[in-house]
Amino acid sequence: MDEQQERVVVQGLREGKAEAWQALYEAYAGQVWRAVARRLGPHAADVADVVQETLMAATRSAATFDPQRGSLWFWLWGIARRHVARHFRQQERLHRLTQAAAWLAAGDGRLLRWLEGQEPAPPEALAAAELATLVRATLTELPQEYEMLLAAKYLDGDPVAAIALRERTSETAVRSKLARARQAFRLAFRKYADYVPDRPAEAHHESP
Fold it and tell me: Please, what is the average pLDDT of the chain?
């Protein structure tokens, strides 16, 4: 594809023309695939995902292409590299979660009982990096208002009065929302130890 063809394709992408996306795919999908495969290895499903994400991202960000800064391939590969890096970060996160879940399972349910206010947390658990991994992963799965509230209370150490003042609401309302947020946290956290049966939540307990 020469420079004139590249400009036509990019302009078509900016205008949302399906034929421009098809031209991009036909011209570069194979090249992107081979370059990504060299970095990810022989995992076809992973390679396919990254290639698809790369081409879709290129379609969405066509306005950022500047022919003065390089060819269409150079621009495309820059996008692909970012998606390859994100893939490795996601794989590392999955590996950490798998390790953390195994650590949780080895604790014979004590951590879940602590979450529900039934017994103190073992000191070694509170210092464990695996617990921090599970807590962060769980928080990202909650509704944003719950995540922000729990982070303010338990990660930042903000008192209820300060949260109420910032949110322009009453302390009673904050405590009520905290109880709901803790319940949502416990339910989300349990998926990492699904061998532990559900138990009624302790709404008055002040730990997530």
Answer: 81
- What percentage of the chain exceeds 90 in pLDDT? 21
3-state SS record for the chain:
CCHHHHHHHHHHHHCCCHHHHHHHHHHHHHHHHHHHHHHHCCCHHHHHHHHHHHHHHHHHCHHHCCHHHCCHHHHHHHHHHHHHHHHHHHHHHHHHHHHHHHHHHCCCCHHHHHHCCCCCCCHHHHCCHHHHHHHHHHHHCCCHHHHHHHHHHHHCCCCHHHHHHHHCCCHHHHHHHHHHHHHHHHHHHHHHHCCCCCCCCCCCCCCC
Taking Cα atoms as reference points, which of 132, 145, 146 lies closest to residue 184?
A: 146
pLDDT in tens, 57-75: 988 888 888 888 888 888 9
Rg of the Cα trace of the chain? Answer: 24
In whole angstroms, what is the distance from residue 32 CA to residue 21 CA? Answer: 14
192 vs 195: CA distance, rounded Å: 9
In tens, the pLDDT along 86-140 reads 998 888 888 888 877 777 777 666 776 776 667 666 676 767 777 777 788 788 7
pTM of the model: 0.59
Q: What type of residue is 101? A: A
